[in-house]
Amino acid sequence: MKGQFPIGKLENIKTPFYYYDLDLLRATLDTIHQEAGRHDNFCVHYAIKANANPKILRVIRQAGLGADCVSGGEIEASLKAGFPASKIVFAGVGKSDWEIELGLDNNIFCFNVESIPELEVINELAGKKDKVARVALRLNPNVGAHTHANITTGMAENKFGIAMTDMMTVIVRAKELRNVRIVGLHFHIGSQILDMGDFQALCNRVNELQMELERHRIVLEHINVGGGLGIDYQHPNRVSVPDFKAYFDTYARQLKIRSGQTVHFELGRAVVAQCGSLITRTLYIKEGAVKKFAIVDAGFTDLIRPALYQAYHKIENLTSDEPLDTYDVVGPICESTDVFAKQIDLNRTKRGDLLAIRSAGAYGEIMASGYNCRPLPIGYTSDDLI
Ligand SMILES: *Cc1c(COP(=O)(O)O)cnc(C)c1O
Predict the structure, then answer these.
(1) Residue 248 to residues 44, 139, 199, 255: CA-CA distances in angstroms?
(2) Ligand 1, CB cutoff 6 Å, lining residues
(3) pTM of the full structure
């Protein structure tokens, strides 16, 4: 064992692969249960897009979370994993007809609607099935999040959601439609957010919008504040479970909830990121003109976050205790962006050493591609290796 890794078992598996520590996932889910459970009107959904590995979904479903889907495929994956349709929400700016029909056929909890044309299409498709679709309006709260520009979603310039100023127009339009019923408001301001002030800003915005609704004598069943809670990529060992207490308490304190209203959350990264690592084998150590490269057998096809958003992932050598040396850790793919980390310290590394690229449980395996005709990585759990 080095840290939480059963090295002996990992050494016999063909690399690269994902390794998920289910004890940590369960501990994370316990904390969510405990901290959200202090507030009896809080309902937590898991954002399937962060990781849809069936073994991970099963553990999350067993913990009682609902599902947040952004495609028909995710609705199918969550139903297959046993999430009840009554706990499935469905968001996305571009829902295809078959995806809407899938949601209608399964009587999902709610469609998070992002435009008037979409509302009209849901109304029409629900009408053909003689159903009334439950919808929440996804509003763009124009709240900035202190995170990477590519993963903010709640600014006026982003493609997501309906402008706040159109809220009443859309509600009035929806009242004319017989096969949709507005049951909530939905928001999602971005991802990897660690500053509780950003969530507080969202709460303030929701409070203003609820006042406006109240002036029209409208009280909706629920408020869905989306996800976005970040994790500590620098210290996966020390801070392995995110601060769910601060997160839920912020909403409990700041959000002015009407009586009978429920508050829904859609957490992805915060649930699964820390339990997963990408395990890769060192192929070669190349002494370049100005630096040393550790060339590994994983590439951005297996974990694209560093190439896509210059994301930092901590890397550990699982099979060396030698003194530290400095490396660029790079993959085999024919692209200059195929770099996991530059100028990082690792225990001195040689051909054959196993490296763990940490905090890779979210937006890792699920974003893998077959570029360069590379096989998709397999995900193993700690339960598989007992
Ligand atoms: C991506 C997404 C989430 C989850 O975001 P995290 O940052 O992983 O918590 C939640 N809701 C919607 C609508 C999303 O698109």
Answers:
(1) 10, 21, 10, 10
(2) 47, 49-50, 68, 70, 91, 188, 191, 226-229, 266-270
(3) 0.96
